[in-house]
Fold this sequence. Notes:
This protein is mainly α. It has helices at about 5-25, 30-45, 50-75, 80-100. The chain has one domain.
Amino acid sequence: LGVPVARMRRTTFLVAAFSTAILVSVAGVIGFVGLMIPHLSRPLAGPLHLRLITSCALFGAVLLLASDLLARTLLPPQELPIGIITSSLGAFFVVTMVVRNRL
């Protein structure tokens, strides 16, 4: 149809990345778990959405509990904000996805 596919792909990726960044900044970094967990639990759940919803709920709860436990025990006299742990995991996840899919 005459659309430059490579440019359109880059533009779509940038729009999606910036809209995700804006939504995470509004909702908080814990909300980033909701963007990351479905990608991580899809290989375990398979193609059925009922299994995916269940595994996302369980895996998300486990991830937040583990992040909270790590945030409370990493520096014993004080607590780290849980957002630091989840944003570190989220940043690692985004970099991994970008490197894996290379645009």
